[in-house]
Amino acid sequence: MKMILLGAPGAGKGTQAEIISKKLSIPTISTGNILRAAIKNGTPVGLKVKAYMESGALVPDEVIIGIMKERLAEPDCLGGYILDGMPRTIAQAEALEDAGIDVDVAIEIQASDDSIAARLTGRRTCLTCGATYHVETNPPKKENVCDKCGGALIRRHDDEPETVKHRLKVYHKETEPLIDFYRSREKLRSVADNSIEETAAEIFVTLGIKN
Ligand code: AP5
Ligand code: ZN
Question: Could you list the residue range(s) of the whole structural domain that residue 42 is in?
């Protein structure tokens, strides 16, 4: 299955992507994680995108489109994938279509701006593998240590309250129009703002997969 996860920053795309990826044995492709790794490794792409990401702005479409075409051509994507964080603009969605990259479904994870603020302030992200936790709703077994790889957990730069406000503004302007874009293609499914487990269960029902 080829699917897109849509939703505001902090709506839970990364969290749900991890659950779906395990269940369906398909890779998650997170543009946010790819870009953060590029910054950490000091690659030319990383140097180009650092300032955009730290301020909560979108990275230019052509950078994202180049990364995605390369990543989706890799062999592990043949059996399907979950796109987490891409497309984020109509131009990116059209570029996927123009490249013949079709998706079966776009799942919108709904969340109010208020619950997003609470989620992002409490989020902790693994410096090594990118896994995310929440101090209250999804804590690691040992404080500030990643369950998966033992890496250190930090608060992302762009999870500071002022930057979150800006990211939400950008989301409503640039990304929200994608909901109508995929609705018009009869590919949109929406799931309500709920607990992590309930949201996952609703996604599996929506996809017709036994939980
Ligand atoms: P990216 O990394 O994609 O960030 P984002 O979309 O802002 O999404 P987040 O990772 O913040 O949130 P999420 O929805 O994955 O939530 P999560 O599961 O972590 O992008 C970062 C930046 O990169 C962008 O600002 C931009 O600069 C650039 N970029 C990336 N892609 C781009 C593109 N295509 N084009 C241009 N620029 C691009 O959950 C959040 C927290 O809540 C966690 O702590 C989690 O444990 C908790 N939680 C999750 N679900 C629930 C729940 N149901 N109930 C309670 N708590 C929950
Ligand atoms: Zn980790």
Answer: 2-111+161-207
